[in-house]
Amino acid sequence: MDQQRQFLQAYEYLCHIGEAKEWMEDIIDSELPPAVELEEALRNGTTLAEIVQSIKGQPLRIFRDPKLQYRHSNNYAHFFNFLAEVELPDLFQFELIDLYEKKNVPKVIYCIHALSWLLFRKGIVDFRIGNLVGKLQFEDHELEATQKGLDKSGVSMPNFSGMSANFNVEPEPEPVESEDDRIDRELGENVATILDLQAQIRGALVRMRLGDMMQELWDHEHLIADLQSRIRGDWARQIATYRLDMRRFSITLQSAARGYLVRSRKRGEQDFWRDNTPQVLKVQNLFRGRKARAQVQHIKSRIQQQEHGIREFQAAIRGALERLRVGNRYAETRDTEPATVHIQAMIRGALLRHKVDREWAELQASEAHIADFQAVSRAALLRRELRTDQESLRQHENVVTLLQAAARGILARKQNAEMQDQLVSTSVDWSAVQSKIRGDAARISFGQLMSALYAEEPQITDLQSKIRGNDFRVAFGQTMSALYAEEPQVVDIQSKIRGNASRIVFGLTMSALYAEEPQITDLQAIARGGHVRSETANTLALMNAQEATILSLQAYIRGFLSRQRHFSDLKALQEQTPAFVDLQSASRGFVQRQRTYDILCQLNAQEPEITQLQGDARGMLFRLEIGMQLGQLEEHEEAVVELQALARGIVVRQKHVEKQKFYRENMEKVIKIQSFVRGRQQGEAYKSLTSGKNPPVSTAKNFVHLLNDSDIDFDEEIGKSSTATCLVSY
């Protein structure tokens, strides 16, 4: 019981700290350190300033630094100004040194409690601080350390329980247990039984799953062995590849780190000399100026010794030199005038010839490109003209076709009529003539034809194939030449073809008239064959003469068809461009994700080594930076020390002046508080003397006079204690 009573004060104090911690976390909406560490966390004043910032809803200039320094007092200023704005009584406020130097931390917690009740009473905050006494648990060593700190500080514990009465706030009503709370309470009471049952159920389920799994493994043992061997082989290959890659990576990283360190060192040296450039230049200027002044002084002294003679001699020398220079220039100019003009003309000619040669060489070097460009230009112009003619002919294609057909029909009918008139007007015995001619010609031609056919049989076969190909090319060439050109040769070919067609029509007509005469038919067939062969030979000759034109036309047609196919393919590709782009982007994204995943896997595998290397590199760089800063500070150590001493003196004097001003303005309050504190201490000491166990020696010394006093003095002491208690309650 003595030990529990000894730690009761520390436990209640830690519970009050926990209450303040929860209230501050609700205000700033962030986590704070545990209650046993909150005193140290509040010393920089950052949390106090954040409370003010959250309540006001406007940003403040909060100084943040992990190392505690006097600039954190600006954070205290924000909190003290806010206390003045909400008009918190001075009785509940604390001083800067109470928290910054941990002189009276319970007073700080007491101030936070008072601020929470005041804000709740004014409606600024819609919730009030809670009561956690008896609800929190702390370790024995934490309670012991807290109690030692309280005993060492020697401060009295404020009365946290009377806070609601001080601010006229009604206490919270006792909560009514709901059905859900009852269920939660009963479940909490039977946690051990429920956990035991759940553990047994989980164990049974795990054993069942384990049995099924073992049965499946036994059934597929050979497959598992094969898979394990494959996995081991793959892992071995991956590990070997990974080690090689990491070796290359580590070598590359080390080289990069060494290069970076060397560059950093050189950059540091350059920055050092650059920062000290004014001092170096100043020293150099001083040395140069001193040396120059010494030389000038020496020269002046020597000149002053020979001043008159030197001046006269210098004037004479300058006059003679100038006259000599002017005479030489005049003579040289008169003597070399023709040669100078000739040289200038030669230089101009050489420059002009050099320019012409350079341009001619450039033209010769670019001759092939210029010829190609000219050919391309001519081809483009020719294709444009042909395209224009083609479009104009396409517009009148139907009219031209009808006109050509009508002209051919008129010519054929005219020739047929003339031939019929000539045949009707003659009185020759055509039957005898024809029979004789047919007989002679048939016998002669039959013999010649048979001999020629047997001798030229292979050539006839080739000629027939060529005639068929030539017939097709002639027909195609006639059609395209009629559409795209009007050369005289092509017109002659067309006229001859029309004449041949008319003669063929006439032959057909004559064969129809004399169809019943076999000899005439044979003669006509032979004649027609010879005529066709002659016409075919003529046509081939004309086509050979116009072979270049026909080839160019065919090349143009092929190019036009190829371009049309190319344009159609491009159009189809353009229509499918979104699909291609999506496919390409998806492919690239998949490849990039795979590459990124592989890199991340490698980095995760080597994370400890990379972290260690990065830590070493950062440490080395940080030490290098600190070394440079320390070197710079050592150079200006005396000035820095003097400046720090002046700054500390100014700060201490300002604090002393502020304290004196504050004590002068609040002297009456200070006296009242001192009397209140003395009375409270006296009452606590008397209580420990009368009802406590093993009171301190100082308390016994203070009240040793009561052993010899009368009952009146005892009553007076009791009255003083009652008065002090009333003041505390007030």
What tags apply to this protein structure?
mainly alpha; flat; 27 helices; single chain; disordered C terminus; 730 residues
Describe the structure.
The protein is an all-alpha fold and 730 residues long. Helices cover 84% and strands 0% of the residues. The protein contains 27 helices and no strands. Helix 1 (2-28) packs across helix 7 (140-153), helix 3 packs across helix 4 (73-85) and helix 16 crosses helix 19 (488-513). The two termini are 32 Å apart. Residues 709-714 and 717-730 have low confidence and may be disordered.
Short description:
With 730 residues, this protein is mostly helical. 84% of the residues lie in helices and 0% in strands.
Write the layout of secondary structure elements.
Layout: H1 2-28, H2 38-41, H3 46-56, H4 73-85, H5 96-100, H6 105-122, H7 140-153, H8 163-166, H9 179-189, H10 191-219, H11 221-275, H12 277-305, H13 307-335, H14 337-365, H15 367-395, H16 397-425, H17 430-455, H18 457-484, H19 488-513, H20 518-545, H21 547-575, H22 577-605, H23 607-635, H24 637-665, H25 667-691, H26 697-702, H27 711-729
Helix pairs in contact: 1-6, 1-7, 3-4, 14-15, 16-19, 17-20, 18-20, 19-20, 25-27
